[in-house]
Amino acid sequence: MSEFREEQPEIHMRSFRKLTDRERPLLEEHLLRVGGDDRVMRFMAGVNDDYVRTHVSRIGWPHAVVTGCFVDGTLRGAAELWFDTPMTGRCELALTVEHDFQGAGIGTELMRRALVLARNRGAETAYLACLPQNRKMQHIVEKMGRTVTTSGRGMTESEIAISGPSHMSLWQEIAGDGIGVIDSLVERMGYPRAAA
Ligand SMILES: CC(C)(COP(=O)(O)OP(=O)(O)OC[C@H]1O[C@@H](n2cnc3c(N)ncnc32)[C@H](O)[C@@H]1OP(=O)(O)O)[C@@H](O)C(=O)NCCC(=O)NCCS
Description:
This protein is of the alpha+beta class. Helices cover 37% and strands 26% of the residues. The chain has a domain at 14-123 and 163-184: Gcn5-related N-acetyltransferase (GNAT) (Aminopeptidase).
């Protein structure tokens, strides 16, 4: 376990799944809740709500795939995967986890899942840029292995090497999609119920 282990948020049910285009408003609400230093860390500058809305309006198939983490039915974390168009074998990754839900492994799991999606779409490298003081993000990148990191121009840039798709990586994505559908049905039915 890392020496940086933070206080754990209280979580009853958490589920990970790809967002559909129709769920874009959920992503917008999530990113608008990410404020202060976290927003600066995500966009590498102080940006206003209109900037965030415009950013979300650009997200969509086929050039961007978003994996979400729902905590008790609300989107609290997201991994955005942006592919070059036309496809070049390179994609760009960005993560956000809302402040009260950080330190519970959500960012790491979003990253792991996003890399599986990148792999299954033929990406050979995933690029991630963050501010030099964003040690938490850099720690997660380091955990993924096969990474080249450089610093300069006021940011830290990482290129994560990605292997080609495998039978296992395709199954991981398909199984994750199936579990995600079941989880979203369970959420809609209002389970798990809060303790009385
Ligand atoms: C970066 C971010 C996505 C991490 O999400 P998270 O859910 O808190 O991440 P996790 O809980 O999976 O992992 C955090 C790791 O950083 C470690 N950590 C915490 N503080 C740290 C520090 N100061 N230095 C190094 N590592 C640190 C934790 O111990 C944990 O590692 P471990 O799992 O090996 O113990 C989240 O903080 C965030 O959304 N920040 C704002 C947006 C942002 O910075 N995005 C990245 C740029 S695209």
